[in-house]
Amino acid sequence: MKKVMNFVHGTWQASAATEYLAVVNPATAETLASVPLSSASEVAAAAEAAHEAFQSWRRVPAPTRIQSLFKMKALLEENFEEIARTITLECGKTIGESRGEMRRAIENVEVACGIPTMMMGDFSEDIASGIDSMMIRQPLGVCAIIAPFNFPGMIPFWFLPYAIATGNTVIVKPSEKVPMTMVKVFELLEQCDLPSGVVNMVNGSKGAVDAILDHPLIKAISFVGSTAVAKQIYARASANGKRVQAQGGAKNPIIILPDADMAMTTQITADSAFGCAGQRCLAASVAITVGEARHTYTEAIADAAVSRVVGFGLDEGVQMGPVISVPSRERIESLIQQGANEGATVVVDGRSPQISGYENGNFVRPTILSNVNPKGNIAHTEIFGPVLSLMHVNSIDEAIQLVNGGQYGNMACLFTSSGSAARKFRSEVDAGNVGINIGVAAPMAFFPFSGWKESFFGTLHGQGHHAVEFFTQTKVVVERWPKTWSRQF
Ligand code: NAD
Predict the structure, then answer these.
(1) What's the CATH code, domain 252-436?
(2) What's the CA-to-centroid distance between 420 and ligand 1, angstroms?
(3) Is the shortest distance between the CB of 7 and ligand 1 below 6 Å?
(4) CA distance 204 to 21
(5) What stretch of H or E contains 135?
(6) CATH 3.40.309.10 intervals, the chain
(7) pLDDT (tens digit, 9 = 90+) per residue, 167-222?
(8) What is the CATH code of the structural domain delimited by 6-248+455-477?
């Protein structure tokens, strides 16, 4: 059985962990590897290696540091298919979705290649007589990245390229469910001329995370995962004096007005709700129809749910893979039942499907619940599976009110052909990522990934300028150089 290794101080190291977990292909139930639950002392060794590397890495000029990112970009492109395949094997999404994920990862490397410009400071001459002032950006030190299971290739890249390009060193803690993708990535990072200790990887779960949150040499935490854990991470790391950005869960609403292009809306909202088997923090989870949109949309989305091709993500023509684990499948199925118990109609029921050839996989087919009670539990619980809940209102104002009543604020989308409705929605909706006739409003790498409310804890988000600000601290210098002190020329 292949054991996943840690990468510390430029070398692959077998963990001394006594406990290992199985890494399982969710479509076939085949065990692919085992992953160690590394201890606090292994985290400490990585923190010390990263701290030592920081002393010289921070002094390497930014234009030299980004040469490693150009290499990284080239190597990720060369090994694109192999990494995408690994994502599909351990995470379950289709190969097309895995390719899309890696494309988004690479975009972040490309954007971080602009660090020499992005981390430039400010200078003001003569702020007082004979006095000048400047603001410079300096790196923080050792930064840790704690990732969720659903985008094993992309999410560490919301942070890693910016952290190292700005002169920090990094420890990545991948999700214990999908650690193999980052192993492939680190095999490439090894070839990027980064000094030993600049990038490190420690595998594990809560124990390793707690050790990261408590270690005094670790100065910043970038976390992505569920809201319950994000809150704990934010509280504990902040109490320890660290800078924290913690992205949490979601329950993303989409509003469909009667004037929407129904064919396009159906296709892209089905992709949003059922793509990645609904295991996307930007998956549409609640569709709110307004007025006459109700009947046409319900019929069309039910057809789209029924006709979606579900199977193993490496097989030709498959549009949706399994969910990550057996407990996950059981949780999704019980939430569907809870929705029905709360009065919803199960229009399309995806529970317990038979997927020929993959009888042991964790499959749930696309599911549609209609007449979902807006005050019920199911309307507010993140299902994180291929389940779309339908609600109905009579006006856009009512719809926006319903959206803004939710506790999450990761994404909200509107489907319409009316510019003024779009403008009103964009302005009034309480969500950090907004889509107009877009099903998955994922910001490109040069924009921040802007979750709000219970979907984000912190101030600066991942990606783009926010990442540059997060990974640097500002220093303001005020200078006086009296003429009498210098030789006159
Ligand atoms: P999770 O919260 O279970 O795990 C995330 C990370 O935290 C993993 O590395 C895990 O090892 C660690 N962890 C788990 N429990 C912990 C604990 N009690 N203490 C310390 N560390 C702990 O999340 P997941 O199931 O891997 O991912 C799915 C969740 O992530 C969903 O809620 C989804 O919405 C969210 N997500 C959010 C975004 C976003 O940008 N907002 C993006 C992707 C996923």
Answers:
(1) 3.40.309.10
(2) 37
(3) no
(4) 9
(5) strand 131-139
(6) 252-436
(7) 999 999 999 999 999 999 999 999 999 999 999 999 999 999 999 999 999 999 99
(8) 3.40.605.10
